[in-house]
Design a protein that fits this description.
This protein has helices at about 40-65, 75-100, 110-120, 125-140, 155-165, 180, 185, 190-195, 200-220, 220-250, 280-285, 305-315, 325-330; strands spanning about 105, 315-320. The protein is mostly helical. A two-stranded antiparallel ribbon has the order 1-2. The two termini are about 20 Å apart. The structure holds zinc ion (2 copies). One zinc ion binds next to helix 11.
Length: about 325
């Protein structure tokens, strides 16, 4: 799954060079995307990205320090869990399985609501997110992939450096993805364009909600701040790192029971299944990207698929691309 922050979709034509036909699956990728001088607005966007990436981390440190002597309020934990689930499903069911891959068709209100929920995860505006993720599928683990842990080759050092880069380093690279090329369908969609424009306001809302809830429920400014800390910043940081782990760990560690395209090394990594709402069954996803269920084998938890099934029963989504035994078996390694 891809993720970017506050990097608006670019109208410039295709980034970087076309993938080198000689890429052998082991060497470092040729350098790209960093040569151009950054403009003022690009520098500002970079500074904001840095703030968003590191601020929740600092908050986590502060949260642990605060915990040393005082208790977390149960309301904070409950609100954090609710907002984690709503925004996380906005990303997995809305941004990813729905808008990026078209695994189902949703009624207009649900489609928009999921796009709003996903935007509140602080993972970038919806159109930019989808464009980057489609580019990741177009060039998986080879030159042109916006975030691949194989970027610096397969030596031990290169692999470690690549993991850090695929996790978070790529966010700081000046390597815009063309929305015109990768997400023309969303650029042509009025509802989605409106959600995309509202992204800064939704970033404020995702923090203002827990702050206001803490003030109302706890009755003091201190409770407003602790709820903001746990259900706002810490919740965002956790979802960030789970999402980023699908980009980094789920292309290096885990099982590969299904065949993927050449060089594509996506893996299934069970420990992340629940926290990632089923997205860590990433090997199946890369083997069959439009499939609405990623955890297709017995015992593989996939909460996002369960939610899509629920929406289907309500009549809010249709044309769901559920896995069939034939299709799955044809893709086994
Ligand atoms: Zn995908
Ligand atoms: Zn991937």
């Amino acid at each position: 799954m891809s993720l970017h922050i506050l990097r608006s979709p670019s109208a410039v034509p295709p980034e970087g060079a076309p993938p080198s036909p000689e890429y052998d699956g082991r060497a470092a990728f040729p350098r790209e995307g960093t040569a151009a001088e950054r403009t003022g607005s690009e520098r500002l966007s970079l500074a904001i990205t840095a703030l968003i990436v590191f601020l929740p981390f600092l908050a986590l440190g502060l949260a642990v320090w605060l915990l040393w002597g005082s208790l977390i309020h149960p309301v904070d934990v409950l609100l954090a869990a609710v907002l984690y689930t709503v925004t996380g499903l906005g990303v997995t069911v809305g941004f990813h399985r729905g808008l990026t891959h078209g695994s189902y068709r949703a009624v207009r209100q649900l489609r928009t609501a999921l796009a709003v929920a996903g935007s509140m995860s602080f993972q970038g505006d919806v159109i930019g997110w989808v464009a980057i993720h489609r580019r990741h599928h177009a060039f998986t683990d080879r030159p042109g992939d916006p975030h691949s842990p194989y970027r610096y080759g397969t030596s031990v050092c290169g692999q470690l450096r690549g993991l850090v880069d695929a996790h978070v380093g790529w966010l700081f690279r000046n390597d815009p993805t063309s929305a015109a090329r990768y997400a023309p369908d969303l650029l042509a969609d009025r509802d989605i364009r409106a959600v995309s424009r509202a992204f800064p306001a939704l970033c404020v809302l995702t923090l203002a909600l827990p702050f206001a809830a803490g003030r109302l429920i706890g009755g003091s400014w201190v409770s407003a701040l602790t709820t903001l800390l746990w259900a706002g910043l810490v919740r965002i940081a956790l979802l960030h790192h789970v999402t980023w782990s699908v980009n980094s760990l789920c292309h290096v560690i885990g099982e590969r029971p299904f065949r993927t395209r050449r060089h594509d090394r996506a893996t299934n990594l069970w420990p992340l299944a629940l926290l990632s709402f089923g997205e860590s069954w990433h090997n199946l996803h890369h083997a069959d990207p439009t499939c609405a269920r990623h955890g297709v084998d017995r015992g593989q938890l996939d909460p996002s698929a369960a939610v899509i099934r629920f929406f289907e029963r309500l009549g809010w989504v249709r044309d769901v691309r559920w896995p069939t035994p034939d299709r799955i078996d044809a893709r086994r390694a």
